[in-house]
Amino acid sequence: MHNDDVTQEIIENWIANGEWQFCVEAGRKAVDGLIRTLNGDNLLSRIEAARALGIIGDNKAMESLLVALSDHDTSVYFRDRNKNLCIAAAEALGLIGDPKTVQALINELKNTHDNVRALRQTCADALVKIGLPAVEALVIAMTFIPEDEFQREVQGDIARILFEINEPVSSQAAHEVLRKLEIVARCTGSVIHPEHSKKVEKPVNSIEPAVAEELHLIQDRLIDRQCKPSEHYVDAGYMSGPNLAHSRDLDIDLIGPLPEVKTPQDLLPNGITQAQFQMDLERKIATCPQGHQARNPSLIVNTWSFHFPQKVCAACSLHDRCCTGKGGRTVGMNIHYDLVQTARVRQKTDAFKKDYQQHRSGVEGSLSALVRGHGMRVSRYNGHKKRNVQAIFTGCAANLKRTASWLSGDRPQVRHPKSWTLTSP
Fold first, then answer.
1. Which of 50, 69, 75, 169 could form an SS bridge with 305, CB 3.0 to 4.6 Å?
2. Of 267 and 271, which is predicted with more confidence?
């Protein structure tokens, strides 16, 4: 039957007879009838109507689908069947792809319990389909300290969504938040930061562990204790644009390797990588190798996100080497772009590699002694405050042992000036 010949009466007959494929083929003409069915009482028909509306992709159905998404029934008998309605609604919202539905999908992702894991997965898939417009809300949603296993699982789900969106800005945002929350492979244990201070007249290094602090807090405490370093050596987990800017403002040279930013284009044999784009931070303009420009970026977690129009990218001769998704190319530029680039150039020099290697040997020796000699690998207590007390007492014990060794005449072996190892007598 030709689409022009389809009437509302015919559509109602299709719905009554369960001929949903015909409704999908009718397209927008069937939307009103499907919405009425979705708002009706027949659960099986509501599920099929939600699926059909998602395939048609008309925003008109969005409000009814949002109602269906939260249509839970607390009774045991209907729980599984209502779950299927919620899953169908979430899948349809993902196919429609309207950014207005992002918060509702996130709420469902965070508020649903383990017995509807399939619904959470469908919500996650829907957010991935919506893509870049969902990034900012997802970043906000995952920025919290989890209190139980369920919250840790939700946080991991949101992180995976950001990575699966497969846009540089979403991956950078996820890395930034994960670094701040100090989450590694879904584990949220405390991180111990040994701080070394070395005095010329009494070369006994003190070890002062601190649990899960951000770099700027560590630097501020060192300044309060009049131990401000001119050079601050850190590992890759602490190297970021904001930390470089904060250290510069304090006149501290932050030294460490910046982690490499990998995009899908880096995996292509001749892909157009982000390094080939010209970034003008002052005017907020990104220029691609073909000369096209992207302006008016959006700011997401210390990163300016530049999006090139889909029409421009589709007509470009470098499209296959530059764009891996359906839309136009998106590139991210850190708000501290100049500082980051300067640090990247420095870390490639032979002088940096030699200097940093000397520093790391001492740090690894201290960490090894704390772990092997003082049991710092595992916390004996639950709770942040108790773990902090354990770290402080362990540091005190290590310092007392080192002081006793020094007073008894023992001197630690120093292989080079920056190798300060913690030795146990």
1. 169
2. 271
